[in-house]
Amino acid sequence: MPLIIDNLSKHITLTPQEQELFLSKTEIRQYKAKTILLNAGEVCKTSYFVNSGVLRSFNINDNIVEHVLSFACTGWWISDMYSLLSQKPENLFIQVLEDAEVVLLSKENQEMLYQEIPKLERFFRILTENSLVAHQERLMDNLSLTAEERFEKFCNKHHDLIQKVPQKQIASYLGVTPEFFSKMKSKMLRK
Amino acid sequence: MPLIIDNLSKHITLTPQEQELFLSKTEIRQYKAKTILLNAGEVCKTSYFVNSGVLRSFNINDNIVEHVLSFACTGWWISDMYSLLSQKPENLFIQVLEDAEVVLLSKENQEMLYQEIPKLERFFRILTENSLVAHQERLMDNLSLTAEERFEKFCNKHHDLIQKVPQKQIASYLGVTPEFFSKMKSKMLRK
DNA sequence: ATAATTTCTTAATCTACATTAAGTGCCTTT
DNA sequence: AAAGGCACTTAATGTAGATTAAGAAATTAT
């Protein structure tokens, strides 16, 4: 069974015909590491579901500093929600970090599927709810924890990622410079 | 027409009977400033919609420092999403900042309404999507902007709140101490 | 009105993290 | 195998914002 159907079944139950219909509206693609799937300034027209590999979303501010908004590995959805919903351009990039197989669902097809399989409203509501909760927690963590504490939490939650992505990306996700992250890490190891 | 029905109609269209049913599952209450609607450690069983006044959600970390997660004034929803969804206790408070009239929707009734008016799945999906986008932006702002820049953005977006809530709460929302906020503000005025 | 609390301000000192810069090791390309 | 580019480290110096403390102003309670 395709991973994405398995993912849907975590929150809703689809008939075989509905599964068929859903899959017919998606597209599978392979990408090499470093491929840019969405460029800053473009309007986002697609949601991405990761079958294998790792993606990230990030922006670049005036100072030419990158900030990682999120990572996505096997079984995770990723997109530029702001641009996807508003259909306006945003300063977000989506990029492949490790060679990946990705399922593409266009906004157009997603809306079409909402009409034909209203249960999907429920699925994406729950998916978005969970994402919101995670973002709220990360926000509060950024306000109240030190970089070290945030890193420890990250390790517990995303153990798999630590091996896979360059540590400067993790530093950026945590909101510190790669130099400080390196220092902090060696300090933590010494304990 | 009740404000909350007006709010629903921003994303979905309800028949008069559906409106009736929806309202019958809610409850209106008046609260005095400082009332605590949800205490840290409790399981959240209700979503709150503000008819008038101002509420806030916040947590308190080990150091006895408060951090404001969100404000809600007229026309806004507020709840403890983590606890409401998981039905586990969280360390979040919900409190009235300015005398308020609030519409209460219990989780139980909300689930019941999803069954009877599936369109509501759509409404809360969109509501949650918008909230997620706002949280993502705030996260990135916290990573890449100075406190001063964040305050300017806050002023543009929530002009109404600045008059209504004590400035130490705004400092907490922005992620700085009241002392630093005070200093920053007077520095900005001098320009 | 007066007392009591809470909020806001000012100022000195401190610290987590940023910036700059130089150097090391490891891939990748030719 | 050399050369170039990245990712990572180390270290000196700089700064945004925290902490502490004390007084002034504004609310709230009596």
TrEMBL record, chains A, B:
A Pfam family: cNMP_binding
SUPFAM superfamilies: cAMP-binding domain-like
Domain Cyclic nucleotide-binding span(s) in chain numbering: 29-114
Listed InterPro entries: cNMP-bd_dom (IPR000595), cNMP-bd_dom_sf (IPR018490), RmlC-like_jellyroll (IPR014710)
Source organism superkingdom: Bacteria
Protein's name in the database: Cyclic nucleotide-binding domain-containing protein
Organism per entry: Flavobacterium alvei
